[in-house]
Design brief:
The complex is a heterodimer of chains A (653) and B (178). Chain A has 653 residues and is α+β, with helices and mostly antiparallel strands. Chain A is 62% helix and 12% strand. Chain A is built from 21 helices and 10 strands. In chain A, strands 2, 3, 4, 5, 6 and 7 form a 6-stranded antiparallel beta sheet that branches. In chain A, strand 4 and strand 5 form a beta hairpin. Chain A starts with a helix and ends in a 21-residue tail after the last helix. Chain B is built from 5 helices and 7 strands. The relative contact order of chain B is 0.19. In chain B, strand 4, helix 3 and strand 5 form a beta-alpha-beta unit. Chain B has a single domain, classed as Glutaredoxin (3-Layer(aba) Sandwich), CATH 3.40.30.10. The chains are: A alpha+beta (653), B alpha/beta (178). At the A-B interface, helix 12, helix 13, helix 14 and strand 1 of A face helix 1 and helix 3 of B.
Chain lengths: 653, 178
């Protein structure tokens, strides 16, 4: 009975979103105030009914209701309660339901925070969001109903995929989905501005916090996924250029471009059409990601169960929404008023370079991701494009980006003196080169040019961040620093995060040591000065798994560093064993042990890894998102209906 | 203003590919090299870099020429099938380790089993270009005179082996005996 309530709630939610689409778009076109005034309650209704459907499914998991096929396939009576709750989004159908609910959440937030903006503009945008929500709910109902019953009812469920029984997996999917779906708001605002031909550039100001908020969620979601892959999959890699990772990476890159391009449009009125195009592309790439992941057109390590009808549906949906908005763009963009001009050396130029590099990088990732599909579609067979391609095209694009990033915030709008900029920045460049090259050579010995460049540029970005607070301190003392607007704090912190991440990526990709060993208890092995001694194994038993746990004692120069306990786990309801990695994390390095197969005669295959500075990657992502979060909270965005009371000379970019 | 319609054109083009991607699923293609002699090459051997592997190593016996890398998930997928071919059916397989870290490749082979009679190292991918390789994995079937008789793109499945590769290899061995 309960499942039917969930089903009905979802159908009602579909009706509500259709009403939202109609009242929003038609209300704005016909300027019907009563229709537009109904939108806040409609949006709230959408949230309530999707939340009811979600709660029903969650309850089915809590109460082990195996009469629902989705629960039977993804849960088990032995599964701990917390994982029974997160199993709700552990597979395709339930994750779509979560997706619908989060979309409703964004809609309500958009309605709430835009209550002081021009009503027609906002109503149109909310109507567009209604179309998108309706598309997702219809998709869930037609192709992936999470409430479908099975008969006969199984006595026991098949359990949640063991690799998803992990704390990071509790937050990774919701965060990632929040990021994807958050991009629908800049999309809706951009399309609304195209329809209304907004003559001023204030829509860019209204869009900025949404783009940044969505990007923060994407950043956290991707970083969590990378962290999870690192310790859960047992390979010790943090990024695999897998199609599903790329699917989240492309909208991430484009949304960084969007955030920066929005700054130019807001401050200078320039790049207006480009910004609109980026807003549409970012959301289109998020939808494309959904298509790639859920249709099975590409081979991926973590694709959902595939079904061609799902692919057809998302494809049609993608074609209709993105196609119509791009058609609208082709029709309206020529009529958008042009923006202000700028000189070669100016902040606009640096931001243009930023956009160019990011978009080219996203396009390169797109090409690599889709290349197997292109070949397949032309009848040329199945292949995989691997990290060699992605590293070869991606790294050379990121290095100049880091270089320009250091200058960008300190160039003036419209025109800047190259000499002045150079005078201000050269001591930092020298310091970065000396420390980067010297430090790397001293600590790691002779090494490649690429890694030296990456180290120097990472330091350069981090150093450049301090120019602004220091110059403020010189002028006005602590008051100058504490009076710095939140948007500038946010920008500088986010840039520092980029620098940290660059250092981590460079170090871990170059100086990692990986050893696959055949060891028996009593053996020891040296890796980069650490001695790993294999003490032995013992049996362990968990709620829904059995495990063999090994003990390693790690010593350095005869002194004990730590004991590590890697495991090989077998989840009772699933056949394949899973390595449970042992980690000894420090900021400057991780020690990493994963147990492989039992080789007989007390011998085990063991993978020992030394990962220098790998934590910098996720630390960088965390710092970046913190910066984004601070920028979102800038009070400029919350002032009245967008007519700023502060002169806009010193905004963040 | 046609340039404003470019994004729409790009999307349309992508949609066509996606549409075909959903409905088609081919795994075999004719290669222009079929029926020709294998391209000449000289590469170091994986485990003994001082030893050189050339096209002459592919002549004299029916063999498979398999392009692979540790970075390629499809290669991991087909590995069991290569082991099966090498161990159960005694098929001679020559490996081309494409754009890989040799140490990692050796470690991987030691861990999961080495189906290759000889492994050549194509560090910069030059030789694989001569062979017309799109990506990994790809497998060529060569007759005893060192001519390419069949090309398989993508991971080899058990079905591919039973239905296509083994009958072909048996036929080629018959040919060699005559």
């Amino acid at each position: 009975m309960l499942a039917e309530i969930g089903q009905i709630a979802l159908i009602l939610a579909l009706g509500i979103t259709l009403a939202q689409a109609w009242f929003g778009i038609a209300g704005a076109t016909r300027e019907r105030l009563d229709w537009m005034q109904a939108l806040p309650s409609i949006a709230l209704g959408q949230l309530v009914f999707t939340a009811v459907a979600f709660a029903v499914l969650s309850w089915a998991f809590v109460s082990n209701d195996f009469s629902i096929a989705y629960v039977a396939n993804n849960s088990n009576t032995d599964l701990p309660l917390i994982y029974r709750l997160t199993a709700v989004w552990g597979a395709h159908e339930g994750s779509l339901l979560l997706w619908c609910m989060l979309m409703a959440l964004w809609t309500v937030a958009a309605v709430w925070f835009s209550r002081n903006l021009p009503r027609v503009f906002v109503s149109r945008a909310i109507g567009i969001l209604g179309v998108i929500s309706a598309g997702f709910i219809l998709f869930t109902l037609l192709t992936s109903n999470p409430f479908e019953r099975i008969f006969p009812i199984p006595a026991e469920g098949r359990d949640l995929n063991p690799i998803l029984q992990d704390p990071a997996m509790i937050i990774h999917p919701p965060m990632l989905y929040l990021g994807y779906l958050g991009l629908s708001i800049p999309f809706a605002f951009a399309v609304s501005s195209l329809i209304g031909l907004e003559s001023n550039t204030t829509w860019a100001r209204w869009t900025r916090p949404w783009a940044t908020a969505a990007w923060v969620c994407l950043t956290l979601g991707i970083a969590l996924g990378s962290w999870w892959a690192y310790y859960e999959l047992g390979w010790g890699g943090w990024w695999f250029w897998d199609p599903v990772e790329n699917a989240s990476f492309m909208p991430w890159l484009v949304s960084i471009g969007l955030i920066h391009s929005l700054a130019v449009t807001e401050k200078r009125g320039a790049f207006r059409n480009w910004t609109v195009l980026l807003a549409i592309s970012a959301f289109a790439l998020a939808l494309l990601g959904a298509f790639l992941v859920r249709s099975g057109v590409l081979v991926s390590v973590h694709a959902f169960a595939t079904d061609p009808t799902r692919g057809v549906y998302i494809l049609i949906f993608l074609g209709l929404t993105v196609g119509s908005s791009l058609a609208l763009y082709a029709w309206r963009a020529p009529h958008m008023p042009p923006g202000g001009g700028f000189r070669l050396v100016s902040r606009e130029t640096f931001l243009l370079l930023n956009n160019l590099l990011l978009v080219v990088a996203a396009a390169a990732v797109l090409l690599g991701t889709l290349y197997p599909l292109f070949l397949d579609a032309m009848g040329l067979g199945k292949i995989s494009v691997g990290p060699p391609y992605f590293n070869a095209v991606f790294v050379p694009l990121m290095l100049p980006l880091l270089f320009f990033l250091g200058f960008g915030p300190y160039a003036r709008w419209k025109r800047s003196e190259a000499m002045e900029l150079g005078n201000r920045m050269w001591p930092l460049m020298v310091a970065a080169v000396v420390l980067g090259v010297g430090g790397t050579l001293l600590l790691a010995g002779p090494t490649g040019v690429m890694v030296l460049m990456a180290m120097v540029l990472g330091l350069w970005v981090i150093f450049s961040v301090f120019v602004e607070p220091v110059s403020r301190f010189r002028k006005k003392g602590w008051k100058g620093v504490s009076g710095m607007p939140a948007s500038i704090w946010g920008m500088l912190i986010a840039h520092a995060g980029v620098g940290l991440m660059a250092l981590g990526v460079a170090a871990v990709s170059t100086f990692s040591v990986e050893r696959d060993m055949r060891m028996q208890p009593g053996d020891d092995y040296d890796v980069v000065g650490y001695r790993f001694q294999f003490d032995g194994v013992r049996d362990l038993e968990g709620p829904n798994w059995d495990s063999i746990q090994a003990r390693f004692t790690v010593t350095r120069n005869g002194r004990e560093v730590t004991q590590m306990f890697p495991e090989k786990r077998i989840y009772r309801a699933r056949p394949d064993p899973l390595a449970q990695v042992a980690l000894h994390p420090r900021l400057r390095r991780d020690l990493y042990i994963a147990m492989g197969d039992y080789l007989g005669d007390d011998y085990w295959s063991v993978r020992i890894q030394y990962k220098p500075m790998v934590r910098f990657i996720w630390l960088g992502a965390l710092v970046m998102s913190l910066g984004g979060l601070i920028a979102v909270c800038d009070r400029r965005y919350r002032l009245g209906n967008g007519r700023s009371t502060r002169p806009s000379g010193e905004g963040a970019a | 203003m046609w340039r404003y319609a470019i994004p729409l054109l790009v999307l349309s083009l992508l949609m066509v590919f996606f549409w075909r991607g959903l409905s088609l699923n081919p795994s075999e293609v004719p290669s222009p090299l079929i029926g020709r002699d294998v391209p000449a090459f000289t590469l170091p051997e994986l485990r003994e870099p001082e030893r050189l592997v050339t096209e002459m190593d592919l002549v004299g016996e029916v063999s498979l020429f398999n392009v692979w890398g540790t970075w390629c998930p499809g290669c991991h997928e087909e590995h069991d099938e290569l082991m099966y071919l090498a161990e159960e059916h005694g098929v001679r397989i020559v490996g081309l380790n494409l754009r890989d870290d040799s140490e990692a490749a050796i470690r991987w082979l030691d861990r999961v089993g080495d189906p290759f009679a000889i492994s050549a190292v194509d560090a910069d991918g030059q030789v694989s270009i001569d062979w017309g390789v799109y990506g990994a994995p790809e497998t060529f079937v060569l007759d005893h005179q060192g001519r390419i008789r069949h090309k398989h793109i993508g991971p080899i499945s058990h079905e591919d082996i039973e239905k296509r590769l083994l009958p072909l290899i048996r036929g080629l061995k018959e040919e060699a005996r005559q």
